[in-house]
């Protein structure tokens, strides 16, 4: 009776996958090379005309328009979604530019351990605890509307178009 | 990588009532969310939970139940088995992402909400790559532990890295009091915190700052492949004694 060969090479069983090793080396090299050429930010695709924090109040009083504050952070994923779906949309951007003085307030607490003084003043004034937070404020600085988190396109449209 | 292991892993997911029920619940939730105009990213938040549940069972429970000992008595390479398991679990969750994507599009069409294809594809890609890295890390942590310890290391590591960074960031601002010396040290050696943040962002990355960010995609893929490679190195040398826990 022929015997079934049940033996197998233990060394072969514990062998490492060469393809995975090659793939890892290729990806590490690609990552090092790619990091030398940072991807250009799509800020130019952001169609909202952002105003500096220092100039916003004076401009709002002069034009009698409320201020649209967007409190954001570099690590905040919903903030990116808000930017892509709302601020890069020509229709939304036109409405924001026509009705508000738009101000982007970027939190750097996580990266730098503190915020710029003018950023911290605004965050304390409007009690910002999460990102994104959108605050619509009167030219005098009183909060008229406030949304925490990205609520989606429909609710953003309501927020922007609400008469004030 | 063993194709048999990949197919068997996917089959086991589809044969599991919990997986099918989860897919059906996902479809309902996604259609409802898109109908009320929720942000594109919202439905994909569920995939994170789905990944942890499916990914924590990659290798540890098989070790504890004694299944692994039986499998490794067969002429299959340990690395082939492990990579096959990772690929099977990742593909099973990618199927769930495809289901979310399709339901999202259908929900938007039904509700008449706008479809921004670039955002939809970018969000699905981010979710798919996060699944890949999470499963790779769970395989790595599972390669030297038993049972569901890998999920404990994963969640604990995430909390620890992020929490300690927050404490360090507060200490860095200290100019007086007991923490002043630590604050001075951290301000004098900014590389310490930069390095800490780099480790956190490589293991538990934030979403990319723009869609289809080449560097972010490469980081995710590279880290996942390195994690699986390390898992293979550890698993191939691991002692797997006979008998269940």
Q: How much strand content do the residues of chain B show? A: under 5%
* Largest β-sheet summary of chain A: 4 strands, mixed
Strand line-up of the largest beta sheet of chain A: 2-1-3-4
Q: What is the strand tally of chain B?
A: 0
Q: What class, by secondary structure content of chain A? A: alpha+beta
Give the number of helices of chain B. 11
- Secondary-structure-derived class of chain B: mainly alpha
Helix fraction of chain A, binned, reads 40-55%
Q: How would you name the oligomeric state of the polypeptide chains in this document?
A: heterodimer
Indicate the mean pLDDT of chain A: 84
Fraction in beta strands of chain A: 15-25%
SSE succession of chain B: HHHHHHHHHHH
CA-based shape of chain B = flat
Describe the fold and architecture.
The complex is a heterodimer of chains A (164) and B (245). Chain A has 164 residues and is of the alpha+beta class. Chain A contains 8 helices and 4 strands. Chain A has helices spanning 10-13, 18-35, 53-63, 77-87, 90-99, 109-112, 117-125, 153-161; strands spanning 67-73, 101-107, 133-137, 143-148. The longest helix of chain A has 18 residues, at 18-35. Chain A is elongated, with a radius of gyration of 26 Å. Chain A starts with 9 loop residues before the first helix and ends with a helix. The mean pLDDT of chain A is 84. Chain B has 245 residues and is an all-alpha fold. Chain B is 75% helix and 0% strand. Chain B has helices at 3-14, 17-35, 45-55, 60-65, 67-71, 78-111, 117-142, 149-172, 180-188, 190-203, 214-236. In chain B, helix 6 packs antiparallel against helix 7 (117-142). The mean pLDDT of chain B is 86.
């Amino acid at each position: 009776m022929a015997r079934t060969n049940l033996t197998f090479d233990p060394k072969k069983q514990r062998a490492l996958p060469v393809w995975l090793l090659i793939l890892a080396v290729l990806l590490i090299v690609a990552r090092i090379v790619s990091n030398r050429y940072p991807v250009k930010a799509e800020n130019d695709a952001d169609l909202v005309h952002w105003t500096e924090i220092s100039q916003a109040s004076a401009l709002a009083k002069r034009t009698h328009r409320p201020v649209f504050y967007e409190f954001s952070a570099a690590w905040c994923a919903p903030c990116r979604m808000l930017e892509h779906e709302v601020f890069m949309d020509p229709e939304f951007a036109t409405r924001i530019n026509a009705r508000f003085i738009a101000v982007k307030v970027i939190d750097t607490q996580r990266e730098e351990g503190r915020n710029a003084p003018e950023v911290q003043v605004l965050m304390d004034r409007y009690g910002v605890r999460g990102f994104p937070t959108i605050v619509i404020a009167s030219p005098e600085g009183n909060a008229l509307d406030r949304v925490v988190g990205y609520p989606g396109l429909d609710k953003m449209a309501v927020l922007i178009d609400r008469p004030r | 990588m063993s194709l048999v292991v990949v197919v068997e892993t996917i089959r086991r997911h589809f044969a599991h009532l919990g997986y099918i029920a989860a897919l059906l619940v996902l479809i309902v939730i996604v259609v409802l969310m898109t109908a009320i105009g929720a942000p594109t990213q919202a439905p994909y938040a569920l995939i994170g939970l789905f990944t942890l549940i499916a990914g924590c069972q990659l290798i540890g429970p098989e070790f504890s139940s004694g299944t692994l000992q039986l499998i490794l008595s067969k002429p299959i390479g340990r690395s082939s088995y492990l990579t096959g398991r990772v690929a099977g679990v990742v593909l099973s969750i990618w199927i769930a992402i495809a289901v979310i994507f399709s339901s999202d599009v259908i929900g938007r069409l039904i509700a008449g909400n706008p479809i921004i294809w670039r955002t939809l594809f970018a969000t699905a890609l981010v979710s798919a790559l996060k699944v890949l890295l999470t499963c790779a890390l769970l395989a790595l942590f599972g390669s030297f532990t038993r049972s569901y310890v890998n999920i404990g290391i994963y969640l604990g590591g995430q909390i620890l890295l992020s929490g300690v960074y927050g404490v360090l960031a507060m200490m860095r601002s200290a100019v007086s009091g007991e923490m002043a010396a630590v604050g001075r040290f951290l301000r004098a050696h900014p590389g310490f915190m930069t390095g800490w943040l780099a480790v956190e962002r490589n293991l538990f990355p934030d979403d990319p700052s723009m869609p289809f960010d080449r560097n972010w995609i490469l980081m995710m893929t590279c880290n996942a492949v390195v994690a699986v490679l390390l898992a293979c190195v550890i698993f191939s040398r691991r002692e797997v004694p006979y008998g269940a826990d």
